[in-house]
# Entry
Amino acid sequence: MTKAKGPASESFEKSLETLEELVRELEAGDKGLDESLALFEKGVALSKDLTKRLEDARTKVESLAVDGGKLVTKPFAAEEDR
# Structure
């Protein structure tokens, strides 16, 4: 079974690799119900963390704007503040 570290302690890429490994283990179909459920729960948590990290990155990228041909940053509000 894959030992996953806490999502915040891994890079995005490493967390994605961990999620892919969990999926491969589940797709193999050789785990019992309890172990499969534990893998699934870890996968869901990783998926949520990765989605949040992607959304945060998207928000930061969108905060860049072109102003008169110059690249400038502008403050962005969290989704809840909009």
Remarks:
- The helical segments are 12-28, 33-62.
